[in-house]
Amino acid sequence: MRESVRAINDLADPSLANCRYASQRLGDILKSYTVYVDRILADTWGRLIANG
């Protein structure tokens, strides 16, 4: 499974481990692309799940 898809699928189960993994992946993306200041994932209620 592609890593980005896994990070999105982890939102279905926002356990601490899944949130940490998503934050790590977002951080990796942030390091690779200089156009981003920050990246976030939010659930359908607008709650912040992870940032990178």
Tally the beta strands.
Answer: 2
**How many separate domains?**
1
Please state the overall shape, judged from the principal axes of the Cα atoms: globular
Q: Per DSSP, what share of the residues sits in E-state strands of 2 or more residues?
A: 5-15%
Low-confidence stretches: none
In whole angstroms, how far apart are the ends?
A: 21 Å
What does this structure look like?
The longest helix is centred in the middle third of the chain and has 17 residues, at about 15-30. It is built from two helices and two strands; from the N terminus they run H-H-E-E. A hairpin with a 5-residue loop joins strand 1 and strand 2 (about 50). The model has no long low-confidence stretch (mean pLDDT about 75). It has about 50 residues and is α+β, with helices and mostly antiparallel strands. Helix content is about 45%, strand content about 15%. It starts with a helix and ends with a strand. The chain has helices spanning about 5-10, 15-30; strands at about 40, 50. The chain is globular. It has one domain (about 5-50). It has a two-stranded antiparallel sheet with strand order 1-2.
